[in-house]
Amino acid sequence: MREKILETTGLCKSYGDIKAVRGLDFYVEAGQLFAFLGPNGAGKSTTIDILTTLREPDAGETTVGGYRLGTENDRIRGILGAVFQEGVLDGLLNVEDNLKIRGSFYSMRGRALEAAVAHTAKITGIEELLRRPYGKLSGGQRRRCDIARALIHTPKILFLDEPTTGLDPQTRRMIWQTIEDIRKQTGMTVFFSTHYMEEAAVADYVVVIDHGKISAKGTPSEFKERYAKDRLILSAGNPEALSVLLTRHGISCRTSSGAVSVELASTLDALPILDLCRNEISGVEIMKGTMDDAFLAVTGKELRE
Hints:
Layout: E1 4-15, E2 18-29, E3 33-37, H1 44-51, E4 59-64, E5 67-68, H2 73-79, E6 80-83, H3 95-104, H4 110-124, H5 139-151, E7 157-161, H6 169-186, E8 189-193, H7 197-200, E9 205-210, E10 213-218, H8 220-227, E11 230-235, H9 239-248, E12 254-256, E13 259-264, H10 270-277, E14 283-287, H11 291-299
Parallel strand pairs: 3-8, 3-9, 6-7, 7-8
Antiparallel strand pairs: 1-2, 1-4, 4-5, 9-10, 11-13, 11-14, 12-13
Helix pairs in contact: 3-4, 4-5, 5-6, 8-11
């Protein structure tokens, strides 16, 4: 196992009678792409706010990069970067000035600051945007500038709170390619939340929370294997008769849009079913279980609810 760059135990946070975070225990290994998922209101943003020192927890022990949350917050801020749901750069200033102001928070001056801005602009692909006002940029361009702001001091761990929400698919891919390229070059840990399960599917590890508690965790493959089912889709001239045949042999199925679907414990379980009904079917498709299926099985909710 790699070194733990973040570990929290018994993390709790309430707002009056509302218990937003209720005893979270998890850790993140150095260099991981770590997905932190949950339906709206599950406690994701509150947890990220706590881990990035923006909110104080009510209880729990947390270390980030070996520093203890609550007593060494300044040191923690020095090794983390964060991109929040809403951009925090000044819309009236150009991108370069925004980055220089951010760099100055980390005691960068003169040539060191110029070099940091140039390097960060290069790795995030915003060199052509440096002299343009942040407020005049497109959503995708602003997002890359937000990431540059978070990387100006070369953090060890980057927090991303729904970084691609509202962006078109092409821009989302571009943002994630930028993040992955930087991660490969630097070995940086990335801790992210998202509303897009295809983004979580490429993570090294996934934690799902609901009602402030952990509901499931594991690698994406473990997650899908444990909670998602493959489906056998059968096309037939008479789907009702096919459904009766399968039910008579103890096979649970559903009929929809002229096709019959059967949940499979494993892909190979399709073979005896196909032998049974080969004379009744006109087409076959096996649909692999997805992260969306797994998420729905764990929480009972769509991710965007």
